[in-house]
Structure formats: C-alpha cells, structure tokens
Amino acid sequence: MNWAAISFDWNQIRAFWATAEEGSFSAAARALGQTQPTLGRQVAALEADLGVTLFERAGRSLMPTKAGLDLLEHCREMGAAAQRISLTASGASQAVEGQVRITATDIMCLHVLPPAVAQIRRVAPGIEVDLVAANDIRDLLRREADIAVRHVRPEQADLTARLVQEATARPYAATSYLEARGRPRSPADMASHDFVSFGNADEMIAFLAPMGIPITAANMRVGSESGVVAWELVRQGFGIAIMADDVAQGVPGLEPLLPEMEPIRFPVWLVSHRELHTSRRIRLVYDLLAEFFAGLGRGER
Question: What is the pLDDT of residues 223-270, one digit of tens each?
Fold first, then answer.
C-alpha cells in the first residue's frame, strides 16, 4: 500500500459529494450543517489539490464536469464504505430498526432487488424491508414509500434523487419461440414476429419505431399490465419483448436478439424524500441500494 498517496481531506470530498448530489453550494451547506462560504472553500481547495475543475454552472445549478463525474462515482463508494465502518465500529447497524418501504416495478422487485435486500438484512438485521411492487409512480411525498427506484428523475423540490446506474436493454425471446418462428436478422425482420405487450401497446409501438422495428398492433395479440405476467409470457414462448439485461440474463431459455444492434440505454434513479438526511434507517438502506446498483453497472451480481 502506498500510504503517501492517500493524502486527501475527507471534509473536502464530503463537500464536493454533497454539492454534486444537492445541485448547489447553498443546498449542500444546509444538508451538511455548514455555511455556504465554508463549503465553497472546501470544494475550491479540492479542485486546487487535484488540478481539475469539478463543477460548471447550468443556470442556478452546478453540474459536475467529466472529471467531477469520475470523482463522484468513487466518492459514493467511499461514503457507503465509511458509513458501514462507522456503524460496524459502534455496533449501530444492529441498533438501526424500523420499516423501510421500497417501491419499484414488479419486474425489478422479483428479478433484481432480492440480493440487495439480502445485503440490507446482513448489515442491519433490525430493519424491516417492505417491497412495494408497483408499475405506477407511487407518491413519496405522501409517504406511500420511503425510497423509490425509477427511470425518470423527479422534479419535486422536496425529493432527492441519485443516478445510480445507466442500465441497458435489448429484445429477447425464448429459444422455443425462435426455433419455431426463426431468428430475425435485422430490425425490419421483426415486423413478421409476435411481440408481448407490457401495458400500453401504442406506447411500445412508438418507442420501437425510431429503432427501425416497424411493428403494429397486429404484432401484439398477447400482453398484460403486469410486468411479471408479461415477462412470463415471453419466457413461455409467446413472442419478443424488450427487457433490461440485468433481468433477462438471469433467466434460462432466453436469447438476446440482434446482438450487433446498439443496446437501449436508460437511467436508474434512487429517489427519497428529505427525511433521508435525518433518518438513519432510510439513509442506510438508500446508501446500500446505491452501492448495489453501482455494482450492477460494473457487471457484479
């Protein structure tokens, strides 16, 4: 270990991290209980030490530069590790108790989140995790959940959001279906195939059209509002569907289609209300979930 190379000031890292998450010096200062000038000086000192610019102005907000985004990923990992060290050293992880409600799609609750829940249970066995499987957007401000996993960043000022993963998706179908109907060789070939509808068929048609997949309502004779049911129909060979790679790669008997085609990319946001900053149990679960999704982004399962 090159101990001489580890010379950063944690307070500077913390000031940068809070500013990146909150979007401004003033909001970060409030979150950390500091004055805005003090926090600004800490960020400026970090920029001077590193020799890079970490933020650029975007209206009234501050946006991380490329160098800032690179540093932010490591800051989040450091922050999660620091909290676990603190909790472990004090035995506090055993004392953090109470229920935390996490809402996500039914597909994510079934296929993605169980390992994250297992990690939460290992770190803080006193926490009760309630997974709210819902394909609509539950209202965090009305406390229908404590933490939400979403693909769209919320606009409400009372909510805090962190981008935790840039996920990928592509068309999948069961091997049984492809052996019976043939494997499409191009996006245009999919016009002669069956698709399983997840909810609104018109929205799915409009989404696929710019990708050169010219399907119509005639291609979607089977589907369900339930993501879990629709995905099971795909698995049983009823047709093709777009699915996140994190989900599909863990299901046997399915094949990705058109491997040369660029995957669909979509964000995964972790969202909570402002109580995140005052509730130890919500903060702990939030940080563990952020670490989990960061691991998925690195290909860890």
Answer: 998 999 999 999 999 999 999 999 998 889 999 999 888 898 999 999
Task: Tell me the residue range of the domain where 44 lies.
Answer: 3-79
Note whether residue 286 is domain-resident: no
Please state, in angstroms and rounded to a whole number, the distance separating the CA atoms of residues 227 and 266: 17
| pTM exceeds 0.70 for this model | no
pLDDT at 115 over 90: yes
Domain count, the chain: 2
Q: Residue 181: what pLDDT?
A: 94
- CATH of residue 237's domain is 3.40.190.10
